[in-house]
Every structure is written in C-alpha cells, then in structure tokens.
C-alpha cells in the first residue's frame, strides 16, 4: 500500500488505526531516516510516537 501512496508525501495523508486498548493512533506517511516512506504513528495526545509497519520500496 505504501508503494502506491508514498508519492503523495505527508500532505493530507492521515488515517486512524485502532490499537489493542481501543485508543486511536494518528498516522501519517513520512520519510524515514533511511530515505523510504513509512507510517509514523502517535497516540491521541501526540505522544508515544513510533514507526509503524514496514518501510515502502519507494524512495522519498
């Protein structure tokens, strides 16, 4: 999926993913340190952020 949406960058690309404790994570696709698109997710408070899932095959 990231391969198809990676070229859109971070603008307007947000979605909500449910977590195990029923709190929503706010995720946005960003360029990671290795230069690939990957989901960056934070909790509703904007804290506890981490990379989520596997990086795409597309460079950013």
TrEMBL record:
Tree of life domain: Bacteria
Name of this chain's protein: Uncharacterized protein
Organism phylogeny: Bacteria, Bacillati, Actinomycetota, Actinomycetes, Kitasatosporales
